[in-house]
Amino acid sequence: MSKVTTPESTPNPVPEPSSNAVPNPTSTSNRKPKRFLSIRLTDAEFADVQSRLSTTTCRSLTEYVRKRLLGKATTIKTRNESQDQLLQELIQVKNNLNRLIEIAEDHHHTEAFLQLKEIKSILLQIAQKCLQ
Predict the structure, then answer these.
(1) Is residue 26 pLDDT above 80, yes or no?
(2) Which of 11, 61, 103, 124 has the fewest CB atoms inside 10 Å of its own CB, making it the most exposed?
(3) Burial class for 116, CB neighbours closer than 10 Å (0-12, 13-18, 19+)
(4) Which tens digit of pLDDT belongs to each residue from 87-120?
(5) How many C-beta atoms surround the C-beta of residue 69 within 10 A?
């Protein structure tokens, strides 16, 4: 799951740029940014920015900082731990079923083989629903 946050919905929003700010170079999709912005941060501030970055879908620090400075929304990743645990258990069950299917196939137990394949199919459907 993920949610989109805007600067207004975060605890410490970045101040709006002043009216004499340089126009957004990324507003036109064909233009590459030309300007370079350098800032200094304390170790604690940098750690805070890195921590916030790790909770988003941004692929780089530059992408995250650019979005935050320009007031664009960032997508926050959220995890459901109980769902993750269920998914891990389903994976273990699937692996055990695969072993049983191999044994049934090797010993020519056609009926057991078909039933195990059907169970595996149902488990895969459940896993897909968990991932949605």
Answers:
(1) no
(2) 11
(3) buried
(4) 788 888 888 888 888 888 888 888 887 888 888 8
(5) 17
Residue carrying structure tokens 């600067």: 7
Q: Is the dihedral of CA 103, 109, 113, 116 positive or negative?
A: negative
- Return the structure tokens found at 58: 């941004």
Domain range spanning residue 123?
81-131
Which tokens is 97 given?
A: 């079923």
Shared domain check, 6 and 71: yes
Same domain, 116 and 65: no
pTM over cut 0.70: no
Whether the CB-CB separation of 73 and 6 falls below 8 Å is answered with yes
Count of positions (residues) in the chain: 132
